[in-house]
Amino acid sequence: MARVRMSDVAARAGVSTATVSMVLNGVGSTRVSPQTQQRVREAAEAVGYKPNSVARSLRTQQTRMVGLISDTIASTPFAGRMLAGANDVAREHGHLVILVDTEQDPDAERQALNALSGQQVDAMIYASMWHRVVEVPDGLPEDAVLLDCAPAAGGRAAVVPDEQAGGMAAVRELVTAGHRRIAFLDAEERFELVASPLRHEGYLQVLAEAGIEPDPALHARAEPVAGGGREAAQRLLDLPAGRAPTAMFCFNDRMAMGAYAAAHRRGLSVPGDLSVVGYDDQQLVAAELDPPLTTIALPHYEMGRWAMEVALGLRQADRATPYLMPCPVIRRASVGPPPAAFGD
Fold first, then answer.
1. At the top level of CATH, which class does the domain 65-161+300-325 belong to?
2. pLDDT tens digits, residue range 63-78?
3. Which residues face 220 on adjacent strands?
4. Which keywords does UniProt give here (predicted)?
5. Cβ–Cβ under 8 Å, residues 164 and 244
C-alpha cells in the first residue's frame, strides 16, 4: 500500500502543502485561519495521513520521548502508581515514556543513560521505589527530575513524600479519638530509611501539641515487615497496666498487620481494645485487613504527575529543596476511642 503523503492531504483540503505542514506540525499555524486548520485536520484523518516522526523530530529538534530510569518500580506494584501518573501527563501532552528498570545495578544504569541519550529523549526522570537520598549518577542531565528520591548534593528538581506531615496526620487521628498512650512501631535504625526519623518527628510534634509527655518505652523498633510489627506490638502489650498503649502508629502497613496479629493473639479487638494507624496505604494490605486499616497514603500517582510536568516544562521547580508532596489520611475502621478499662 502506497504511503499517504502530505500532498494527498493538501489535495483533499484544497490548500498548499506548506499550509498542511504548518497546521500538522504546529509551526506558524497561527497564520492559518481556524476554519482552514479544521479542514486540514479533517482531510488528514480522512486520507489516513500519519506524520513521519523521524522527519518531524529533525525539524522540531524534539523526539516526543521521555526517558524514565528507575530501580525496581516497573516490577513492584507497590510503587507502580508513580509510573501511571508520569505516563498520564506524558500521554496528555503527546509524549511517549521509555522505561528502564536497572535493579540498582550501576552498569545497567550507565547503559540506560547512554541509550536514552543516544535516542535524544526530550527529558529524563530518575526514580526510586522508596523515598531515599541518592548519589546522582554521572551522565544524568542537569535538567533531569528526581522522583521519590532526593539528591545527596542538592541542586536538582526533586519530589518526595512529606513524611513528617504524614506522621503528624497519623498521630492526630489517634489523639483526636481520645488516646494519650500512643506507641510508635518504628523501623530499626540499621535499615537507614529516610522516612523513619521524619515520621518519628511528626509523632513527637503532635504529642507535644497535645501536652502528652513521650514515653521512650512506647517507641518500639523492629524489622519493618509483618513479623517485626507483631514482635514489637507484643513487647508493647507486655508493658505493665497503665503503661501499655491504647493505640499504635505503625511505620508501615505491614507492621500494622503484625500489630493486628499480636492483638488478636491476646483476645483484643481492633479498634475496641486497640486502635491502629498504618502508613503507605499498600495495595492488598491496608483495605483487606479486618477491620480495614486507617492509614496514611504515599502520594505515588501525584508525585509521578509532578515529576513529568516539571520534566516537560509544564511547571517550575525549586532546585534548592525537594518538593514535599502531601500524604493524605485514608480513614477506614481501625481507630476508635480508648477502652474504658484503660482509662488514663
1. alpha beta
2. 789 999 998 876 676 7
3. 185
4. DNA-binding, Repressor, Transcription, Transcription regulation
5. no
- How much of the chain exceeds pLDDT 90, in percent? 75
Strands (E), the chain: 65-70, 96-101, 123-134, 145-151, 158-161, 182-187, 219-222, 247-250, 275-277, 295-296, 323-325, 329-330
Tell me, what amino acid is at 67? G
Strands (E), 23-122: 65-70, 96-101
Mean pLDDT of 177-203: 98
Q: CA-to-CA distance for 279 and 328, rounded, in angstroms? A: 10
CATH architecture of the domain covering 6-60: Orthogonal Bundle (1.10)
The three cell numbers of residue 14 are 484544497
**Residue type at 139 in one-letter notation:** G
Q: Phi and psi dihedrals of 329, rounded to 5?
A: -80, 135
- Angle between helical axes of 80-92 and 300-311 (0-180°, round to 10): 40
Segment 303-330 mean pLDDT: 97
**Structural contact between residues 264 and 290, judged by C-beta atoms closer than 8 angstroms:** no
> At what angle are helices 6-13 and 34-47 packed, to 10 degrees?
120
Asked, colleague to colleague, whether 6-60 and 163-298+329-342 share their fold, the answer is no
Q: How far apart are CA 206 and CA 73, in angstroms?
A: 33
- For the domain 163-298+329-342, what is the CATH code? 3.40.50.2300
Round to whole Å and give the CA distance between 187 and 223: 6
pTM: 0.82
8 A C-beta contact, residue 161 and residue 299 = yes
pLDDT of 342 > 60? The answer is no
For the chain, give every domain's residue range.
6-60, 65-161+300-325, 163-298+329-342
Contacting residues for 242 by C-beta, under 8 A, at least 6 apart: none
d(CA 21, CA 29) in angstroms, rounded, equals: 9
Query: DSSP class of residue 218?
Result: G
Distances (CA, A) of 145 to 2, 236, 276, 309: 42, 42, 36, 10
